[in-house]
Every structure is written in C-alpha cells, then in structure tokens.
Write a structure and sequence with these properties.
- It is a single chain.
- With 192 residues, the chain is of the alpha+beta class.
- The chain has one domain (20-126, 139-177).
- Helices cover 33% and strands 13% of the residues.
- The protein has helices at 33-42, 54-59, 80-100, 110-126, 151-160, and strands at residues 16-20, 49-53, 67-68, 71-78, 145-149.
- α3 (80-100) crosses α4.
- The strands form two sheets. A three-stranded antiparallel β-sheet has the order 2-4-3.
- The termini are far apart.
- β3 and β4 (71-78) form a beta hairpin.
Length: 192
C-alpha cells in the first residue's frame, strides 16, 4: 500500500542561496505609493503555469492535471511559489482597497479565505526556525541572512516549460487564458 510520501510529486531541484531579509523594502516602505503599487503589479504569477509532458509527469509522480488546450500530450501545472505570489498580490490589493474605501477588484469571499489558509499551511509546512534577533522594536531580524531557493532557477524553469497562460481579473472561459506567452520575465525582483 502506498504511503503519503509515495504520493508526493518529484520537484524540480533548486540550488540553495543565502539572502538577507530586510524590514523595509521598496515593496513595503516606498515613499512613492505609485512605484510601490507598480512593483506589486509587475509580479506575474501566471508565469508559473507550466506545460509538462504527461508521460514524464506520471513517471515523476506528478498528479494528473488538465490538458494544455493546444497540445493534449502536455498537462498544465502551477508552480507553488507562483500560487503564493498570486495570493499575496490579491490579498494586498484587497486590503488596500478596503482601508481606502475603494471598490474591490477581487470581492472578499472564498478566494480570499483560501489564500489566507494556503499561506497558513505553507508557513506551518515549512516551519522556518531561523532565530530572529529582536530589541523590542519593529525591526526583528532586519538584515539577517536566510537560507533560500534560487528564484532565478525557478523562473528559468517556468520559462522553459511555459503554458503561455495569462491571468484575468474578469471572468473569461478557461481556454481564453492560454496562447499568451510572456517574454520570460515574471516581474519578481529577487532578494539582493
């Protein structure tokens, strides 16, 4: 009988890198809100939709997934890190719209609750035990080094296996999301 470990898909292996985390970055403490919003809007979670040969995927323990509309020999998958970026983008946007009294781009509801819960599960699953220094102010761990995965390698993998998918704030038929290849740029500024 298969164990839970046997059900885990084989992941693409990324190199480990060491990066400093900062309390203030242009994504959070930019004196120009328009520039800050632009950084967040530039992130393209759809870049993480990949099309993988179905036989290869099956041989590597990947679950069955929808067919790529233009090529039935490939399955479509969303790389998990890009899913979390998608959630962060819409949670941030909805939060700011709420505190500013603006109409919601993404109505609060099941999707928002899913994103909060997905992030909760991810944090618990990864149980990062890095000890952050603190002096009682709002800068715990500012500048500390963290063990990270190489984002550039993930981006390159997604680019090589692109499903040519695009997001849409408006509801459109599923097949209309496909056929829009990007230039290989996911809009993510890597940690320095």
């Amino acid at each position: 009988m298969p164990t839970i470990v046997d059900q885990a898909p084989q992941r693409y292996t990324l190199d480990t890198t060491w990066k400093q985390f900062w309390w203030n970055t242009p994504y959070s403490m930019n004196s120009n809100r328009t520039e800050e919003d632009g950084l967040w809007e530039a992130i393209q979670p759809a870049h993480g939709f990949v099309a993988i040969d179905r036989t290869w995927a099956q041989d590597h323990g990947w679950p069955d997934s929808m067919y790529l509309p233009s090529d039935g020999s490939k399955g479509v998958y969303l790389l998990e890190a890009y899913h979390y970026l998608h959630c962060l983008r819409i949670l941030r946007k909805t939060f700011l719209e709420a505190i500013e009294g603006n109409p919601f781009t993404h109505p609060p509801g099941a999707h928002m609750k899913h994103c909060f819960d997905a992030l909760r599960q991810y944090i618990i699953c990864n149980a990062d035990s890095t000890p952050l220094y603190s002096f009682g102010d709002f800068t715990a761990g500012d500048g500390q080094v963290h063990e990270c995965k190489d984002w550039g390698q993930l981006r390159d993998y997604a680019t090589r296996h692109t499903a040519c998918y695009r997001d849409s704030d408006e509801p459109i038929p599923l097949w209309e999301h496909f056929g829009f290849c990007d230039d290989g740029n996911d809009g993510v500024n890597e940690l320095p």
